[in-house]
Amino acid sequence: MEHAHAAITPAPGAPTGPGLRPAGGAPFYAEQGGECALFAHCFTQQLPLLIKGPTGCGKTRFVEHMAARLGRPLITVSCHDDLSAADLVGRHLIGHGNTVWSDGPLTRAVRSGAILYLDEVVEARKDTTVVLHPLADDRRLLPIERTGELLKAPPEFMLVISYNPGYQNLLKGLKPSTRQRFTALTLDYPAPAVERAILEREGHASPALAARLVQLAQALRRLTDHELEETASTRLLVMAARLVTSGLPLRDACRAAVVDALTDDTETVRALDEVVRAVV
Ligand code: ADP
């Protein structure tokens, strides 16, 4: 999202896309710039969505917010390197002397017209992305080999996947045949004004505390681009704000929630600590 267009979430009650309920009743999400409308258009056009962005920048919260505003149930799966196609689609379970079919989260989402969110999809085994293909293009079909069923996704079903295109994922990536089935949205850490608003709301920070933490994040993000796999995320700032609000001194909170959370390397800890001392 372009930071130049960043704005705090539109006034509660102001829908910004087709079929959207007011933002007020949904989990709090501060918009970075137009992503709520994009999501709503994808939903009505039955297009799957790929959300790219660093860890802790708000991807999961965004999907939770949109599911509530579209009035659809949300099923979330955190992908890992052991996640197989059967984990998503379902399997036969043996119990009380007979076998019963048990739907996996993907099948449940298709049957019930839910929004299915696959978090960190590049972590999953390659065979899992293959089961997404016929669902992600205009066929919108889920073949269940084991039961011989062929499910047609209802219009309310939506497939959303996310991944963090940080350098550790460069090699894994998504196969072109998979990614080209998805509309794509890039999120980044929110612009300073938006991030301050998030810290005030989520971390119960005063405006002054929010401003200092955002300043710190900006300094760390400049520094750590080259030295760390991941840098100070909005999630870590929210945690620091909560510790301060709870009574911990600011530097201790930053050490615990940001510095030690980011690295185990003593040299890097020292470098980050210096930035903390210079800024807060
Ligand atoms: P991701 O899925 O990108 O790793 P999350 O959505 O879990 O990140 O965000 C982590 C936390 O940061 C959330 O629980 C929330 O407190 C806060 N947060 C980050 N971005 C936003 C945002 N735009 N609006 C509201 N809260 C946010």
From TrEMBL:
Domain CbbQ/NirQ/NorQ C-terminal: 195-279
Species the sequence originates in: Acidovorax carolinensis
Matches recorded under SUPFAM superfamilies: P-loop containing nucleoside triphosphate hydrolases
GO MF term list: ATP binding; ATP hydrolysis activity
ATPase dynein-related AAA domain location: 48-182
Pfam family, one: AAA_5
Region (Disordered) location: 1-20
Keyword match Nucleotide-binding: yes
Name of the protein: AAA family ATPase
